[in-house]
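Chain A, query sequence.
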Amino acid sequence: MYLHLGKGVLVREESIVAIFDLDVTSQSHLTRKYLAAADKAGEVVNAAEDIPKSFLVCREDGGQRVYLSQMSVSTLLRRAESGMI
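Chain A, predicted structure.
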């Protein structure tokens, strides 16, 4: 199955490692450092049309990809559980 993140971006559910609430996790300097390093490495995909609310870490093609989404964690989890794409 696929999960729709916004802006027409779909990810395979099997590739999702974790989903994080950006407001909560960005308070940590470690998370900010991780996101900055992922951005510098070209691993970040912005799937948000507005201010992102969550980010997903995915394993793809032997590497990792970080997706920013304007959808909340609860919305993404609900979509994943219901099988909505």
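The longest strand covers residues 54-60. Strands lie at 2-6, 9-12, 16-21, 44-46, 54-60, 63-69.
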